[in-house]
Amino acid sequence: xxxxxxxxxxxxxxxxxxxxxxRYEAVVRWAEYIxxxxxxxxxxxxxxxxxxxxxxxxxxxxxxxERKRVRSFADDVLGTEHEDAANGER
Length: 90
Prior knowledge:
Blueprint: H1 22-36, H2 39-59, H3 64-86
């Protein structure tokens, strides 16, 4: 994504401070939004975004070996998250 810059990529703004990447500001706005609104409001919005990402991913024709690699990675990540949750970690 074009807004996926790291702190090393950030440019100095006024007052010689580094500007935050645009994605950071969007995450802060979203966190404030879900804090201020009930899940019944933001839940369907979040579902629409996630569903759109899934549909986009499904529209890409990946070779079978690449699909298996991605699935294996996802399973590893989810397994780690489930283990962490079982141990009371976040």
